[in-house]
From TrEMBL:
Molecular function per GO: ATP binding; ATP hydrolysis activity
Family according to the record: Belongs to the ABC transporter superfamily.
InterPro entries documented for this protein: AAA+_ATPase, ABC_transporter-like_ATP-bd, ABC_transporter-like_CS, ABC_transporter_ATP-bind, P-loop_NTPase
SUPFAM superfamilies: P-loop containing nucleoside triphosphate hydrolases
Superkingdom per UniProt: Bacteria
Name by which UniProt lists this protein: Nitrate ABC transporter ATP-binding protein
Protein keywords: ATP-binding, Nucleotide-binding, Transport
Matching CDD domains: ABC_NrtD_SsuB_transporters (cd03293)
Pfam name, any one: ABC_tran
Species, as recorded: Tardiphaga robiniae
Domain ABC transporter: 17-256
Functional note: Involved in beta-(1-->2)glucan export. Transmembrane domains (TMD) form a pore in the inner membrane and the ATP-binding domain (NBD) is responsible for energy generation.
Amino acid sequence: MNAPLAHPKPRAADNVIELEKVRVTFGTAKNAVTALAETSLRIDKGEFVALVGPSGCGKSTILKLVAGTLNATQGNVFVAGREIGAGAARIGMAFQNPTLLPWLNIRDNVMLPLKIVPPFKEAFGAKRKTEYRDRVEASLKQVGLGGFGDKFPWQLSGGMQQRASLCRALIHDPTLLLLDEPFGALDQFTREELWEIMQNLWIEKRPTVLLVTHDLKEAAYLASRICVMQARPGRIVDDSPVPFARPRTIDVSFEPDFVTLTQRLRQRIVAARAVQEIVS
Ligand SMILES: Nc1ncnc2c1ncn2[C@@H]1O[C@H](COP(=O)(O)OP(=O)(O)OP(=O)(O)O)[C@@H](O)[C@H]1O
């Protein structure tokens, strides 16, 4: 069983993520797996950070720590608003597979956070057929799903379901958006379309975003900073800013600086994988 977190010091800035020398160990004795060791990471308000690295290096583990669904074995995890209780961070999440509820239509699926997240939930009864409905329609329209609110998930393609999942992740204006390979299962063209939509939403609302991805082009197109991880022990071994001006178009991915950046990251990951194989 994981030990409770040491009580973190309150910070002045709101909505900052900070991992301080975090260790996460799953299992015990000879079955123990150290997923993260001495991992430190700070993300400021409004940053868009991508986490990349070889399979099993601990990317999703970091996401779970930040989401609060997993406790660190050692070290501190600070998410502004969560520990100190003042104005709790509003978290939105999207995963590789759309997790829409099959018995609800798309409108009600997208509306779900408004039903359960404060301050929206207090007015849910009064606003669900007016203001909240309009809000959902506007959001669906923004991702090209205008008029699909009455459909059920099984009546939509995988790409359309993923668009609806993004709407649900964003409908309550999250201050913190956690994305675990949300575009991973889509074809290249749908993926690029959704990158553009995601970028526009980030520019408009400026949530703090932590994106886990295996796609270096996606990381360099979307993020303002890219952290490369290495396994055994899991930790961050490279932390690079992404300097390209916004709004970015897909054309940026053909520019020499972009190609140089993704090649460098690729080499870093190849090196990280090699270390992983030697240690395993
Ligand atoms: N619940 C668990 N019990 C035991 N080991 C776990 C558990 N969750 C994760 N691990 C191990 O911790 C390590 C990190 O896993 P994690 O899922 O964070 O990696 P990842 O970088 O997200 O991988 P991928 O890119 O393949 O999704 C892996 O070795 C994994 O096997």
